[in-house]
Write a structure and sequence with these properties.
Blueprint lengths: L4 H4 L1 H19 L5 H31 L4 H22 L4 E2 L5 E2 L3 H71 L5 H17 L6 E2 H16 L5 H4 E6 L6 E2 L5 H10 L10 E7 L4 E9 L14 H12 L4 E7 L3 E9 L1
Length: about 350
């Protein structure tokens, strides 16, 4: 849990009290000699410090926070009465004010004046204590929420790698079983993809050009499955700069989904069209279109992460900074994603 600046650096607290004491010294120096002003200010500020810390460290935690209100009020009353008597005993009753006139207040008036002032100090210290505790609680809740979100994102990302690897290995197995020459190049592409996923995707953000290169490798690996795929699959990218960053593997599910449910192996006129554009205000536009088997749903099968996983990642990573539109027709499937980088 994060601490306030005064808790991190106790010297700052002491310095604040010294500055407060100097203000009182200057106030009393208008009507007293320097030695008297120092003594009066020291007694006054010392009693205030005692009230503040007795209240914050003892009375509030042991009584007020435990809802022992009557006992808390009684102890505060006793403390203020005691400290007011100490104040009147140690500080001369007759003070020469800035007007250079000696004024002697009635004893009862002097006591009430000191008592009420100390009560204000007590109230301020109580308010400060609750404000600091509230701030700590908010920091704690924020930290817990952040850690929970990071854990959830890590969990979602951990689901991507096995899912992607499982599908790719199935494709390689098929090519190897059929003794296709493209099996070896596909294994090489897979090794490059795994290197990126293992060593470059551990951070919260990755350079967008690296992510695009990763996606291009996926396209190239898919094209190795068939010569016909060379004409059926297209991936266009514009506007991507070195300074653009994105959450790693964010678009991978879209690619997996369109390849998994496309009808390229059945439909000579089938296609996959993917486009990624970044405009000047750092807004990314992603469009994915594929023809599909009419009888196959676009949602991932049992055991896959599916689009629901991706939607959750978008909500966690780009809250209120993205729009996602999905158009599911009988024989086509379209995705339009817009997000602020």
């Amino acid at each position: 849990m994060k601490r306030t600046a005064f808790e991190k650096f106790p010297a700052m607290t002491a310095l604040a009290w010294v500055g407060y004491w100097l203000i009182w010294v200057l106030m009393f120096s208008n009507s007293q000699q320097v030695a008297g002003a120092v003594r009066t200010a020291s007694v006054n500020v010392g009693l205030q410090v005692a009230i503040v810390y007795v209240n914050m460290l003892f009375l509030i935690p042991l009584f007020l926070e435990k809802r022992r209100y009557v006992l808390y009020g009684l102890l505060c009353f006793v403390m203020l009465v005691l400290f007011s008597k100490v104040q009147l005993t140690l500080v001369p009753a007759d003070l020469k004010l800035a007007l250079k006139r000696n004024i002697q207040y009635p004893r009862a008036f002097q006591f009430m004046r000191v008592y009420l002032f100390f009560m204000v100090v007590l109230i301020i210290s109580t308010a400060w204590k609750f404000a600091v505790d509230r701030f700590k609680n908010l920091q704690t809740q924020s930290e817990l929420s952040r850690r929970q979100m990071e854990s959830e994102l890590q969990f979602l990302k951990s689901q991507i790698n096995p899912h992607f690897l499982f599908n790719t290995l199935n494709n390689i197995y098929t090519l190897a079983y059929l003794k296709e020459d493209n099996a070896a190049p596909m294994i090489m592409k897979l090794s490059e993809l795994l290197r990126y996923m293992l060593y470059q995707c551990q951070e919260q953000w990755v350079p967008l050009p690296d992510e695009v290169a990763f996606l291009r490798n996926i396209i190239e690996m898919q094209k190795l499955k068939s010569d016909l795929f060379q004409q059926q699959i297209s991936f266009e990218v514009t506007g991507v700069g070195a300074g653009h960053r994105i959450a790693p593997l964010l678009l991978l599910t879209f690619f997996e989904n369109c390849f998994k449910h496309s009808d390229l192996d059945l439909n000579a006129h089938g296609c996959i069209r993917i486009r990624l554009d970044v405009d000047d205000p750092n807004k990314l536009y992603f469009y994915c279109f594929n023809t599909k088997r009419p009888a196959i749903p676009t949602a991932n099968e049992h055991g896959g992460i599916g689009l629901a996983n991706l939607k959750k990642r978008l909500d966690l990573t780009y809250p209120r900074r993205h729009t996602l539109e999905i158009t599911d027709n009988a024989d086509t499937f379209e995705i339009r994603l817009t997000l602020s980088l």
